Amino acid sequence: MTERKHLTSLEVEKLLSATKDSRNEARDRCLLLLMYRHGLRVSEACNLELSQVDTESRVLHIARLKKGLSTAHPLRSDEVRAIKAWLAIRAKMKPDTDAFFISERRSPLSRKTAWLIIRSHGERAWLSLPAHPHMLRHACGFALPIRERTRA
Question: Pseudo-torsion of CA 69, 4, 139, 20, nearest 10°?
């Protein structure tokens, strides 16, 4: 039997819940939510800049990697709330970078740190398999048909 390469919707919810009361709750919740909902690769999330996130127009501009088309995605209300919560904390840190996600050292979030964030929250959520960033991208793909059916 091959190991699953995606998280189920229930596992994603557990992962998001595991960010509650964590050291960097607002950043981590925002990171996980955007990666899941928009199918972001870890590099796309880490390279996200402030100018790509427009809470007024409720749009996320994604610079896709690996020959993907750069696109604009609508932001849902819970995503806007998560973004605003993170931006309020980020502003207090006064970083010298336009990177949207930053580390405690106020530098752009690295791929390695993003991996560690997802892995540690997966452990906190008691997931049955070790979580990693690409599982959120695959989870987005699996959830899309379900989201489309519930809108119809």
Answer: -130
In a domain, 34, yes or no: yes
Tokens representing residue 118 in the block: 């997802």
Domain count, the chain: 1
Q: CB burial class (10 A; 0-12, 13-18, 19+) of residue 59?
A: middle
| Helix, coil or strand: residue 49 | strand
CATH number at residue 34: 1.10.443.10
Containing structural domain, residue 76: 9-147
13-57 pLDDT, tens digit per residue, is 999 999 999 999 999 999 999 999 999 999 999 999 999 999 999
Asked if the structure places residue 125 within a domain, the reply is yes
For residue 82, the one-letter residue type is A
Residue in the structure block whose two tokens are 């998001």: 16
Q: In this structure, is residue 57 part of a structural domain?
A: yes
User: Model-level pTM?
Assistant: 0.88
Structural domain contains residue 27: yes
CB neighbours of residue 93 within 10 Å: 12
CA distance 105 to 11: 30
